[in-house]
Amino acid sequence: MSPAMQRIQPAALLEVLHPITWFAPMWAFTCGVVSSGQPFLSNALFILGGIILAGPLVCATSQVVNDWYDRHVDAINEPNRPIPSGRIPGAWGLIIAIAMTLLSLAWAWMLGTWVFWAAVFGVALAWAYSMPPIRLKLNGWWGNGAVGLCYESLPWFTGAAVMVGGLPHPAIIALALLYGAGAHGIMTLNDFKAIEGDTKLGVRTLPVQLGAERAARVSCWVMAVPQAVVIAILLGMGHPWHALFVGVLLAVQGLLMIRFLKDPVKHALWYSGIGVPFYVSGMMISAFALRFDAGVAGLS
């Protein structure tokens, strides 16, 4: 039997979809839903459809595409992964990636025009991130920016677009873009663990380009500044309590960053696990501020 005709192990198929990564876009999509000011119950099917699109479809597609084009590197660094280990044999990795792309776009089409084009943009970035010759992931500036946009900004925008049936309020778009920009710094946290390997393989992450200490400072500023702008926007829109809560979350992150900056390589994953939840909590608080704003809620 040729490798292309071999059976795929069900557990390997689930593994290559990386369900643990679905949370971020699903959370951001939910923030978009909340920020839209639209009622939940009467739109339950649209919300469920959008959550499925953000996580199990578009995000999962990006994971399969990434694993397929990283298969040669993974054969060296992580040979037990489904594709290099042969648990997903032959060209099945590519076939699954293409099938997931088409399924994502078909699903998005059913949710409306704005959602469809958002999904087109998302899957295009997913392929551009991993596929040669573009392969955005080879440069930390472009690659992390693409992931932040796809994991935070685009799902937030899509969640709001699903609910309003069109282009969301400018304040919603602004906050979605800001939190997506901050996610660039979050993505950099994942790069500190592989500086040596990335250097050898020519992957120019920020720690490789700038060194660990400078990259850590950049990632902290990139995470903090957008949140500070969000606080200013919330104050300008007349939501001092929401702004205060986001400010407290940012202050806690600042205290945690002090330890992270002392030894970025050692503490990057620690900060990712402890500090990032404060970041994403601020996203939801900001979403509720927009929901309760008369200008945004007036779109309902």
UniProtKB/TrEMBL annotation:
GO cellular component, one term: membrane
Transmembrane regions listed in the UniProt entry: 12-35, 47-69, 90-108, 114-131, 218-237, 243-261, 268-290
Protein's cellular compartments: Membrane
Membrane association type: Multi-pass membrane protein
GO terms under biological process: chlorophyll biosynthetic process
Keywords for this protein: Cell membrane, Chlorophyll biosynthesis, Membrane, Transmembrane, Transmembrane helix
Pfam families found in the cross-reference section: UbiA (PF01040)
GO molecular function: transferase activity, transferring alkyl or aryl (other than methyl) groups
Entry-linked PANTHER family: CHLOROPHYLL SYNTHASE, CHLOROPHYLL SYNTHASE, CHLOROPLASTIC
Protein name: Chlorophyll synthase
Record organism: Rhodospira trueperi
